[in-house]
Amino acid sequence: MAKEIWLLRHAETEWSRNGRHTGRTDLPLLPTGEEHARLLRPQVAVHAFALVLTSPLQRAVRTCELAGLLERAERDPDLEEWDYGDYEGLTTPQIRTGVPNWTIWDHPVPGGETAEDVAARARRILDRAMSVEGDVALFSHGHFLRVLTSTWLRLGPDRGRSFGLDTGTICILGFERENRIIRVWNEPPHLVVARHERSR
Q1: DSSP per residue over 19-68, as a string?
Q2: Known catalytic residue: 4?
Q3: Residue 121: inside a domain, yes or no?
Q4: Which of 3, 96, 106, 147 is most solvent-facing, going by the fewest CB within 10 Å?
Q5: What is the residue-wise DSSP string for 147-179?
C-alpha cells in the first residue's frame, strides 16, 4: 500500500520547553514555536492530503495554520493530548518526589487517562485515517502521537516510551508491502524530503 499518515507534533510552548506535562491546558505557541511551525509549510502545504485532522487545542491548531493546512483541516477531539489529571503542569522530577520512579508509561495518572484510554482514541483516529483513499496529516501532541505510533505497529501503548518526539517535527507512517512501518521519524522539516525519498 502506498498510503502514508503524516504526524506533526505542535511546535514549542512555554510548558513543552520546561518539561511540564501539558494535557488539556490550552497554551499558545512561543514566538520561537511559531517560527518553527512556519518551517513546516514548504514540506506539507504542497502535499496532496486526502484528509487533514488537528487536535482542537490551540497549539496544534496554530501549528496547522502556520503549516498552511488549516483551511482543509477538521478538528477532532480524539487527537487531544493525554489527560494528565492531577499531574497537569508538573514535571516528571516533581511527580517523582511523591511517586519514586514514576513514568507516564508504567504508573497511574490520578484524575486522568490510562494508557489504554489514550490507545482507544488512537485506534479511532487510525480507523478514520484508513477509511479514506490517500495520505492523511495529523496535527497533535507528543505523548498521544507516541501512543498512536505504537498502536499503528500493533504494539501495546506502553511501547510509546521507545519513540522520542520533539516539538515541530514530522513523522511518516506507511507500509512496506502489507507491513506497517515507520518511514520517517522525528525529523526537522528541512530534512524530511530527502529522508522521505530515500525511504521509499
Answers
A1: T---SS--PPPPHHHHHHHHTTHHHHTTS-EEEEEE-SSHHHHHHHHHTT
A2: no
A3: yes
A4: 106
A5: HHHHHHTT--GGGGGG----TT-EEEEEEETTE
88 forms bridges with which residues in the sheet?
none
Q: Please, where are the H alpha helices in 70-111?
A: 92-96
Active-site choice (4, 10, 113, 143): 10
Question: How does pLDDT run across 180-200, given as a tens digit for each residue?
Answer: 999 999 999 876 655 555 555
Establish whether 10 is a catalytic residue.
Answer: yes
Q: Is 66 part of a structural domain of the chain?
A: yes
Q: Which three cell numbers stand for residue 134?
A: 490517500
Polymer length of the chain: 200
Catalytic position from the list 4, 12, 81, 187: 81
Is 189 contained in some domain? no
Domain count, the chain: 1
